Amino acid sequence: MRNIKYTDSAQFQCLEHLREAFMDLYLVHCGIEHCHPSQYLGPSVRDEYIIHFVLEGKGTYTVGGITYFLSSNQMFLINPGEEIRYGSDTDEPWTYAWIGFNGIRASSTLRNCGFSKQSYVLPFKKEDILLEHISNILGSTQLSLSNDLKRNACLLMLFSYLVENYNNLSQQKSNGKDHYDYGSNVYVEQAIDYIKWNHNRGINVTDIADYIGISRTYLNHVFQKELGVSSQKFLMDFRLHKAASLLISSDLPVTEVSAEVGYDDSLAFSKAFKKKFGLSPKNYRSHKETMDRFTVKQPSTNEFLDISNP
Questions:
Q1: Please, are residues 89 and 58 in contact by the beta-carbon 8 Å criterion?
Q2: At what angle do helices 216-227 and 231-249 cross, to 10 degrees?
Q3: Is the pLDDT reported for residue 14 higher than 90?
Q4: Among the ranges given (13-17, 89-93, 104-108), the one the predictor scored with the smallest mean pLDDT
Q5: Mind listing the pLDDT tens digit for each residue in 216-268?
Q6: Nearest in space to 115 (alpha carbons), one of 56, 65, 165
Q7: What b-and-e string marks burial along 17-42, b requiring 16 or more CB atoms within 10 Å of the CB?
Q8: How far is Cα 276 from Cα 310, in angstroms, rounded to an integer?
Q9: Out of 58-62, 126-130, 271-275, which region has the weakest mean confidence (pLDDT)?
Q10: Which pLDDT score, from 0 to 100, does residue 302 have?
Q11: If you write DSSP's letter for every residue of the chain in order, what string do you get?
Q12: Dist CA 28 CA 103 (whole Å)
């Protein structure tokens, strides 16, 4: 068995190689790190569960082909056996704390915290309580039964807090009393980032709202407030503008363009495209090629399609 390892520096604090003294739920490692800009880990596969808590700054987490854009007061889950990659933002590198754990009750405990195959990212509150538990773990570095008990007690208290956090959020939503900590522009920015990276996966408004951690109703409210359009219309317009750009810049068949922007049904895509632009995808491409031959000064793609403001 490897000896317990404790690292303490200005940027990185970590306690690892802990003994598996508890079978139900036990700590494997724990730490806090102030990351450098564009500091990435992975692609990699882990043997244990890990929850990262973003304390400040921004970063990305990629799992299952989906990239999540995270900021402070969001947490993300790494499952054993899944290939993942995550890294800090270039301009606002994140600081995060984490816990690595395992045990026969790990998966059921995570479900009660709100995590699932559809919910790798969740919000969290009361950062001071969370950091108190993690600091107590990091302060228990000596190999002794009392420290084993103390570390596991802190882990259980931390999970108790996460379960309570999830129950409170669920109760607020069921009572129609959603409470949100950020301005509407922040939620819109998060939603647009998610759409940019996942519009080709057939996502819908519910997927966007679940990713951010707000209700569909509130998501629509913030889009109407910030952009003057519904979230559904923004998503549809974004896809159609991307499709128009592909029709102009590539020779892809219409069926492939349809799939590239998240439409499973190419007929439904053609109908929506014609309603938006007044021409079928095929005629749109032909019309643009004709305009190119007879126009001396061409507008940029953004000007022609107004992609910057769908």
A1: yes
A2: 70
A3: no
A4: 13-17
A5: 888 999 999 888 889 999 999 999 999 999 998 998 999 999 999 999 898 99
A6: 165
A7: ebeeebeebbbbbbbbbbbeeebeee
A8: 11
A9: 126-130
A10: 39
A11: -PPPEEEE-SSEEEEE------SSSEEEEEEEEEPPTT-EEEEEE-SSEEEEEEEESEEEEEETTEEEEEETTEEEEE-TT-EEEEEE-SSSB-EEEEEEEE-TTHHHHHHHTT-BTTBSEEE---HHHHHHHHHHHHT--S-SHHHHHHHHHHHHHHHHHHHHHHHHHHHHHHTT-----S-HHHHHHHHHHHHHHHGGGT--HHHHHHHHTS-HHHHHHHHHHHHSS-HHHHHHHHHHHHHHHHHHH----HHHHHHHTT-S-HHHHHHHHHHHHSS-HHHHHHHHHHHHHH-SSPPPHHHHH-TT--
A12: 10
Amino acid at 55: L
pTM assigned to the model: 0.55
- DSSP codes of every residue in 219-286: HHHHHHHHHSS-HHHHHHHHHHHHHHHHHHH----HHHHHHHTT-S-HHHHHHHHHHHHSS-HHHHHH
Q: How far apart are CA 119 and CA 106, in angstroms?
A: 16
Extract the tokens encoding 266. Answer: 């190419």
Q: Record the tokens describing residue 196, joined without a space.
A: 């940019």
Which residue has 């479900």 as its token pair? 111
